[in-house]
Structures are given as structure tokens and as C-alpha cells.
Amino acid sequence: MRHATSSLAPQDDLVRRHADLVYRVVLNLLRDADEAADAAQEALVKVWRGCAEIPETSQRAWCCRVARNCALDHIRRRRSRPQPAHDPQTLMEPLAETPSPEEDAESAEFQRELDRALATLDEPYRSIVILREVEGLAYQEVADTLDLPLNTMKVYLHRAKRRLREALVLAAPDLIPIP
To answer: Where is this region: Disordered (predicted)?
Structure first.
């Protein structure tokens, strides 16, 4: 019986070490906490089941790939079912999330515009920006996660940042410093 328990320890450890990262990746892609919790749980089950096949050096990138794929599956399912005009959960969130001081108002507006602009990016551009800039993965980890050559990923990241900047300049020119 001890043998079976000891064989589960590496899987449990992998899930524990990467659970927060997996959740953040799916939350950034799905933008819905409940759906992200479901997708993260699904991803963590897949991570737990497939742990033995992955070399230790690429586990973080592999976990991100599994999380991204689960989030994309949820997005595909979401598109196939009708959505309510307004999410009641979002409408009921406390206003405390919106900064009240004037100096924070501009920052909050910029964050909203950035979220909107990020939502307009197609895949894999959006995933690249989220994994690299939000989650802080190394270039090689992002490339491995998305199964892209490193140079291709760097080009896509450059294009994604350019598209984000263009979208932000159009949406909120007064918030974006123009070089």
C-alpha cells in the first residue's frame, strides 16, 4: 500500500506547485472566475494524470499549455451556447474594486482599456502576451507552452504588443503616451 502512495507524491507536488499558475492562466483567458475555476480544475486533473510523461525541466511550460488548452476548450463551448446580455455576478461585484482617489482613476481606466484591447487579440497573440507579460514566463517557456519556435514566438509577441498599442491609442489617446 505504501508503494501506491509514494507513486502519487510527485503528481501531488506538481499540482500543488503549479495550481496558482494554472488558475491565473485560465482566468486571464476566460475572464470569468467561475468558469476559470472549472477550467483550472479540469487542467489540474490532466496535469496530475500526465505528470509522469513530462521531464522536470519543462513542467511549468507544460502546465501552462494544458491550462491554455482547457481555457480554449471552454471558450469554444461558450461560443456554442447562448449568453445572457449581462452577467449577474459581474453586476453584483462590489465597487471597492474601482479605485476611488483621482490619481487611481486614470490607472483604472487604462487597465479597462488594456483589458478590452487584450480581448481583441486573436490566438496565439493573446496567449503570448498573457504568458509573457502577465504570468512572467521566460521566452523559451512561452514558446514551449505554445509549441512555437522561439523566434516565431518573439515575432508574435512584438506584433501583439504593436496591435495592443494601436488599439489603446485609438480607444484612449489621452491615456497613452505617444513617443
So the answer is: 78-108
